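Quick one: structure for this chain?
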Amino acid sequence: MTRSAKIGVRELKQRIHALLRQDDFEAALTALDQLPAREVINPLLYFFYNRDELVKWRAVTAVGAAVSRLAGTDMESARVVMRRLIWNLNDESGGIGWGAPEAMGEIMARHKGLAREYARILVSYARKDGNYIEIESLQRGVLWGLGRLARAFPELLKDTGVLFPPYLESTDGIVRGLAARLCGILRVDSARAFLENLKSDKTPIPLYCNGKICMDQVSRIAGDALSRMNPGVIYQ
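Got it. Here's what it folds into:
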């Protein structure tokens, strides 16, 4: 029996919460990797609703790592988690789905097999003829998740660029910023005029990256996106 199996659910949640809050998040992820993926996934999903934004975001990262690890030994169980996240975004679930699209993007960025199966579903949340999400706070999650996926496997988002320029005119600054970043990653040429307009948008926005929340500005992100479209420029 593993050490984690000997402790109660409450103690496990407390342990995970402490890891998600510690300064050295890379060390925290290493510690979480030592626990059975099946046991940590549910507690991590619980922290998607934490009031501390950094805890929530780090839980998204940790779920991505855990589900990817689980997929390596039990693909069907990993699919169950993906279906659970999809259900949380379904109107019939009765929930709101906080963290679900972000987690889907994080999981798929870490496991190409799952990405091939579920990328189209994450894209569908941005499609007016699909499962379009109208709530701007959830649109943030969709765009962040798609951006995470786009960095890892841009080929899976081929021909989706037409979906994202409308978000560049959103009333929500974070949505505009995330859409601008996504258009840059995918080099969406039809977004150029929108991005030029955003170069004067000084709205400050918080963005999660590498285990931290940092402040950025829509204008800077738009400028970077335009730079990515220049011929001959190669970005990682």
